[in-house]
Amino acid sequence: MSYNTFGRLFRFTTWGESHGEAIGCVVDGVPPGIALSEKDIQPYLDKRKPGQSRFTTQRQEGDVVKILSGVFEGKTTGTPVSLLIHNEDQRSRDYDSIKDKVRPGHADYTYWQKYGHYDYRGSGRASARETAMRVAAGAVARKILGKNISIRGALVQMGVESIDRDSWDWKEVNKNPFWCPDKKTAALWEKYLDSIRKKGSSVGAVIEVVAEGVPAGWGAPIYGKLDSDLASAMMSINAVKGVEIGEGMNAATLMGHENADVMRMKKGKATFQSNHAGGILGGISSGQPVVVRFAVKPTSSILMPVKTVDKHGKDTDIQTKGRHDPCVGIRAVPVGEAMMACVLADHMLLHRAQCG
Fold it and tell me: How far apart are CA 124 and CA 122, in angstroms?
């Protein structure tokens, strides 16, 4: 299998499977002299790890990260940073009854057609378990970016239920199990997702990630655009089926004078009056907050029986047992933050290399 590496100057390669002994990644391109320890990485992994509420998979993984290389006396050396997490709670027996059946919505069929086999134990490399290492790499990227750039994510829609943007409060994000910035909507989602979970089904979600403090000038025209790299990063996350930058699809409903982010001088500095562009113009950051949204499909592993085929060419039904997220989008919030950090760190280094 190829294409396990993301990024250019700042890049990471992940390895491992959902039900293997461990997962890990190698982060390359990290500048020397940056203070880094497991304590800088672990808080972000704790946000993503499973089993923290009844609304996520009950697989119990500590996701304790270990730095194997690239750090000496508390600082990066400029050599590859290798990170490791041991898997602790694999229950492969949960999949014994479906090992010959193709799960609709999963990568089983396409892996089978491409590689001649697929890992029925939690999807192997196609599992969301792989995203733990993205979060670890994202924590390293944040150290490169520094404290002046903040990256925050929130769940803004679950199924057909969206937040009230007039009630957006970043302080609420860490006070509920959904990373929801709207207190009333978070309470509504509890009942909404409970009803879906009890039916044995699942639901999708939309996540919004905002990066503030990004200076103007990052990104390159044509084939190195900041927004195209962000779209690629978010689309690479498991179960993501759509990405928007700024106003996104809604921009098609606006007229030119509505969509334009008009500018005025304020205290000798050009300032924008709105941010429909999501902080990126011509593929280059404008100095405004960088805003990305992505849509996550419903979890494909559900308790309800569905029709499928098996590896012997017969029609059959499948009912997935085990521990699965009724809304996998919940745990995608810290993953989206991590991918934003990785892209920005890459573009920071690329900009420095060209423009000093």
Answer: 6
Torsion of CA 103, 107, 110, 116, to 10 degrees: -80
Q: Which residues of 332-356 are buried (b: 16+ CB within 10 A; e: fewer)?
A: bbbbbbbbbbbbbbbbbbbbeeeee
Both tokens of residue 181? 């910035």
Residues 158, 160: Cα–Cα separation, whole Å: 6
Longest dimension (CA), the chain: 72
- Per-residue pLDDT of 267-310, as tens digits, reads 999 999 999 999 999 999 999 999 999 999 998 877 778 899 98
Query: What is this structure's pTM?
Result: 0.92
Contact indicator for 132, 81 with CB cutoff of 8 Å: no
> What DSSP string runs through 287-320?
SSPEEEEEEEPPPS--SS-EEEEBTTS-EEEE--
DSSP-derived letter for residue 215 is P
- SS3 call for 245: strand
Distance CA 355, CA 318 (A): 56
The 10s digit of each residue's pLDDT in 37-74 is 999 999 999 998 765 656 665 555 678 999 999 999 99
- Between CA 135 and CA 44 the distance in angstroms is 7
